[in-house]
Amino acid sequence: MIGLVDCNNFYASCERVFDPRLEGRPVGVMSNNDGCVIARSNELKALGVEMGTPAFQLQPLVREGRIHLLSSNYELYGDMSARVREVLEEYSAGVEPYSIDEMFVRFDGFDRNSMLTLSRTLHRNVRKFTGIPVCVGVAPTRTLAKLANRAAKKRPEFGGVCVLEPDEVGTQRLLADTPLGDVWGVGRRLVERLALQGLHTAWDLRCADPRAIGQRYSVVLERTARELQGTPCFEMNDADEARQRIMTSRSFGRMTGDLNELRDAIRQHAQRGAEKLRHQGSLTRAVLVFLKSNRHRPDLPQYSPSTIVELPAPTNDSREILAAAQQALEHIYLRGYRFMKAGVMLLDLIDQPREQLSLLESEEDIARRERSQQLMATLDAMNQKMGRGTVRLGVARPDAAWQLRCAHRSARYTTNWQELKRLR
């Protein structure tokens, strides 16, 4: 059996953990630069506020105190997600994060008859130890677990916990009541094509011949049909699988054409990319830097250049990557343009243990490489222990144009010593 634990209204719930005054009130979380609504509490949904609604359209409701809009606080959300995972790992070694607010939990070897009791324990203890409300769905396959979780969330009679067995009458009824569009991995266009064949619900797809489905549509849909029948076919991608490229970019809080501010932004992105590179144990052989002007401002001259700088040797040293990124920026920068976004991409990655060393490498080169590895390891250890950015190359100005707008961000209660919750 496998479970899916889904945090309810995750971003809003994280905010409520540290500000109980928000309980029961309409809460929305805005995107970067406070642009639009990207997360809503149930109360805000009930008011008819849609995802993606521009924040400025809601300002009258904010001023009247009818709703609360907050800047996104990803540092807080990431830490709260890690805490939820820690609670789940108390019960299973097979916790597989699917997103920041969803985690699959493997129950291999557990007694199937104890699944409901165990699921209720997870449901209760995650809320108890983190303050985050969750719903739990358990079934023999991931596709059924997603449907079980959806039922746990939508149907009050389940009380936040739903366990499905593929051949039970209750499961058949649930599948019959579930439109195909609500099945994991079945998109809108596929729903339209399946409707032409008389398939409208999850039960219809389950009763179809999987082999015929595979021949007519795709292997993925064939696997979905088999999962609805209770046969596991999907596995999560290895969470530790190394990425083939690493991108670090961000839209600016306001446009800028100042070269020094662009240097600051590129320096931050290059350092962050190098940290990710070392975290996954890789080296990069090339650095790409890009700038983008605002295409939504046709009244301004448009210029969105990019260039790649090849490194002399594969590296994960922040200093070498930063130097290459700054070289690229100097190459593409032109005066007279105002930019809205900048980014750094690390390309052509290789695993560090598989690095092909040069036969002509001298003892001095070897010593330099070892010193670099020790320095970067020390830097990462200090930042991990004391907080990201404790030791860094250069200092970013807090009022720089490229800094994100986040005028309504809550404090980073769990990750920043300066923003701890104050008690009176």
Can you tell me about this structure?
With about 425 residues, this protein is an alpha+beta fold. The protein is built from 14 helices and 13 strands. The chain has helices spanning about 10-20, 40-45, 60-65, 75-90, 115-130, 140-155, 170-175, 190-195, 200-205, 210-215, 220-230, 260-280, 320-330, 365-385; strands at about 1-5, 25-30, 35-40, 70, 95-100, 100-105, 135-140, 160-165, 245-255, 280-295, 305-315, 340-345, 350. The strands form 3 sheets. The protein has a 5-stranded mixed beta sheet with strand order 5-6-1-7-8. Strand 5 (about 95-100) and strand 6 (about 100-105) form a beta hairpin. Helix 12 packs antiparallel against helix 13 (about 320-330). The longest helix is centred in the last third of the chain and has 24 residues, at about 365-385. The radius of gyration is 25 Å and the shape is globular. The mean pLDDT is about 90.
State the gist of this model.
It contains 14 helices and 13 strands. It is an alpha+beta fold and 424 residues long.
Helix/sheet category: alpha+beta
- In N-to-C order, the SSE pattern is EHEEHHEHEEHEHEHHHHHEHEEHEEH
Q: State the share of residues found in helices, binned by percent.
A: 25-40%
Distance between the termini: 47 Å
* Side-by-side strand order of the widest sheet: 5-6-1-7-8
Total count of strands? 13
Characterize the main sheet: 5 strands, mixed
